[in-house]
Amino acid sequence: MLLTKYIAENCIVSELASITKADAIKELTHLLFEKKKLQDVGTALDQVMARETVDSTGIGNGIAVPHARVSGLKSLMCAVGRHKAGIDFMSVDKKPVHLIFLVCYPPTQQTTYLNFVATIAKLLRSEENVKAMLRAPAEKDMFAVLEQISESFVSPEESYGKQMKTAPDLLKTKDAHADLILLARLQLCQEMYDTAKSGKKQLKQRIDNIRGLIEPRLLKHYDRLMKARPPALVPIEGDTCQGCFMKLPSQFAQKVRQDTEHIHTCNNCSRFIYVL
Asked: What is the pLDDT of residues 45-58, one digit of tens each?
């Protein structure tokens, strides 16, 4: 996913004035409003802050992704803030946050949001990419870095396909992480196909290519879910399934967080679930 498709250069702050998590979130939410990306700053801010009280969105490595579903939006919007000294976000690795990606998205684009966040996490897992963002002198340079690193990112299905060619027994190992990425990519492409006014032939080809890489048993369950109760793949936030919005048993939710070798499903709605 090209990150800069959803991040405008004028929605990047090279040095946040805020020194606390709450103020940084407010600063970036107001920036989206000022740049006419949001119609109702109050509602969006309340949603983001409410989500943050459930569980910290500091994902580690100096990155935080505060986010919320906001009704009335036509597309996902993101503001980026940098704080070189670092802000305490109660991150999973207990380290200060230097780059904040504040994301607001419409309820109809949950899969787009999932792929957007997954792309951020994947790209900024690289120390070099993080350093490039921190070294960039100004907003335009930060935008250029984001554009460059996301353009050079190999799509998950291409990466998985290369692995299969070099390791024929890969499917036997049940690579849960790769399968989850493929399922998310498939769901996103299907959403794009359903709403596209042009380019459907290319999207259909891409969908077919991805389907060919997914284990048949998983694909069968995915198709059943997409027919009965889409989306098929949803995250867990604060022990709550974001598909049926039912709270999962804490022990089970913890197992999903810790067990990266298996794909799990919600014990209420049967959707594929994972933790960001």
From this structure: 999 998 888 778 88
